[in-house]
Amino acid sequence: MGAQLVLPGLPARSSTFDRWWDAAGEWVEEPNQRRDGESGVLRLRRADAGQPLLYCKRQRGHLYRSLRHPFGRPTALREYAALRAFERLGIRVPRMVYCAARKQDGRWQALLVTEALEGFVSLEDWYRGEARAVHGEALQRGMLRSLAQTLARLHRAGWQHGCLYPKHLFVRVRGQGREARVEIALLDLEKSRRRLLRQRASRRDLSQLRRHTPAMPASDWALFEAEYLHALRAAAEVADGF
């Protein structure tokens, strides 16, 4: 099934919405109470063997407010918009399967279903494990370069992730030896937003990343920053026609 978005004012197809809403799974993020409601994430297993696992974000209320939506709108819909925008930028994100929202007895309900990132590990687990011992220094530098280029692309477009913790950054190594390449993916985008000044987006995101990644050595951070600034400068030179 392709991704489906049902905007406010348009009724979600009840049978489809209810099927996802009532799907049985295991909680990987217990429903938490905040933002005038609750939000949790279920892991769903498909009947067909070999198919990626699914993650279903299920919300009651859990609203954000903005000038455009002063009375509130489910954060799942903001995350949907960010997922689409990041895809257009060429940034890897989880593949969407279903997204819809409806009002039930005057209260918002929202669903966002995505596929698991197969073969990826979080940056948190990358540093918690023995990445250097397994992959070597060259691939470690490649990971930092790919991470820097991904975030530079995000910030050049004026986007701020908004919750850039190492558990929301994912790494996958493809190939072996000299052919090995690193792919970066981002997830949990419900706080992502556009900023008028990319410097503000950059400053906020990188500050969060540095603060919440104590396992990253200072030497790694210095290399990451250098690669990030290089990626920003290279993009500016291309834009200026050099």
Q: What would you say this structure looks like, in words?
A:
- The protein is of the alpha+beta class and 242 residues long.
- The chain contains six helices and twelve strands.
- Strands 1-2-3-7-6 form a five-stranded antiparallel β-sheet, with helices on both faces.
- A hairpin with an 8-residue loop joins strand 4 (63-64) and strand 5 (73-74).
- Helix 4 (131-156) packs parallel to helix 6 (218-239).
- The longest helix has 26 residues, at 131-156.
- The protein is globular, with a radius of gyration of 19 Å.
Structural descriptors:
242 residues; Phosphorylase Kinase, domain 1; five-stranded antiparallel beta sheet; three-stranded antiparallel beta sheet; 12 strands; disordered N terminus
CATH homologous superfamily caption of the largest domain: Transferase(Phosphotransferase) domain 1
Q: What oligomeric state is this?
A: single chain
Q: Using the CA coordinates, give the radius of gyration.
A: 19 Å
User: Any idea of the CATH class of the largest domain?
Assistant: Mainly Alpha
Order of helices and strands: HEEEEEHEEEHHEEEEHH
Write down the overall mean pLDDT.
Answer: 88
CATH topology of the largest domain: Transferase(Phosphotransferase), domain 1
In the sheet with the most strands, the strands line up as 1-2-3-7-6
Largest sheet descriptor: 5 strands, antiparallel
What is the helix fraction of residues, given as a range? 25-40%
